[in-house]
Design goal:
The complex is a heterodimer of chains A (about 110) and B (about 110). In chain A, about 0% of the residues lie in helices and about 45% in strands. Chain A is built from no helices and nine strands. Chain A has strands at about 10, 20-25, 35-40, 45-50, 65-70, 70-75, 85-95, 100, 105-110. In chain B, strand 4 (about 35-40) and strand 5 form a beta hairpin. Classes of the chains: A mainly beta (about 110), B mainly beta (about 110). The interface of A and B includes residues 37, 43, 45, 99 and 100 of A.
């Protein structure tokens, strides 16, 4: 079961900025880095953001991450139609001694 | 190219067993802990199991503890997940992923049905 809480959906028009929140606790987000993943329909999750706000090569700088206390956020600026996907946060949990995932947010481009 | 390729999924009856494999290439497999993550149809990602680089330490989610066994063969660059006493709720796409969860395979589908 998911330990990190995300809003089920978010939406915006092309060019807009969309923000997705990820709420956790002191044992996960509060003490460890947060990864973000993008999952297009029928495909494996794609590594999007790590270590608060670093992007693997090939990920556009329209995607950015931040963290404050026990919460993290993913921002998508200049929203594009190809950004329509599910987004998940993840963090190591010191109490469970394993990774935990967010509940997932479906982003719709209107 | 860094790559993970899962295999072994299929249709199994409730109570049955299945062994998944994950073949790694393009990196030094024995240097990395590895994970299994699953996704039930229409649901989110669930962290299932993990194993240390040398295979001596393992982790299991409560939902699979006692039924699944993770292992690895560093000489074959392969990760395994032995699944037993399978239930309908184990039906999912199973992904293997590397230590930082930066590299993912395309997944293998497990269907549990009579």
């Amino acid at each position: 079961q998911s330990v990190l809480t995300q809003p089920p959906s978010a939406s915006g028009t092309p060019g807009q900025r969309v923000t997705i929140s990820c709420s956790g606790s002191s044992s996960n987000i509060g003490s460890n880095t947060v990864n973000w993943y993008q999952q297009l329909p029928g495909t494996a999750p794609k590594f999007l953001i790590y270590s608060k706000n670093k992007r693997p090569s090939g990920v556009p700088d329209r995607f950015s991450g931040s963290k404050s206390g026990t919460s993290a956020s993913l921002a998508i600026s200049g929203l594009q139609s190809e950004d329509e996907a599910d987004y998940y946060c993840a963090a190591w949990d010191d109490r469970l001694n394993g990774y935990v995932f967010g509940t997932g947010t479906k982003v719709t481009v209107l | 190219e860094v790559q993970l390729v899962e295999s072994g999924g299929g249709l199994v009856q409730p109570g049955g067993s299945l062994r998944l494999s994950c073949a790694a290439s393009g990196f030094t497999f024995s240097d990395y802990a590895m994970h299994w993550v699953r996704q039930a149809p229409g649901k989110g990602l669930e962290y299932v199991s993990a194993i240390s680089s040398n295979g001596r330490s393992t982790y299991y989610a409560n939902s699979v503890k006692g039924r699944f066994t993770i292992s690895r063969d560093n000489s074959k660059n392969t990760l395994y997940l032995q699944m037993g006493s399978l239930r309908a709720e184990d039906m999912a796409v199973y992904y293997c992923t590397r230590y930082y969860m930066d590299v993912w395979g395309k997944g293998t589908t497990v269907t549990v049905s009579s």
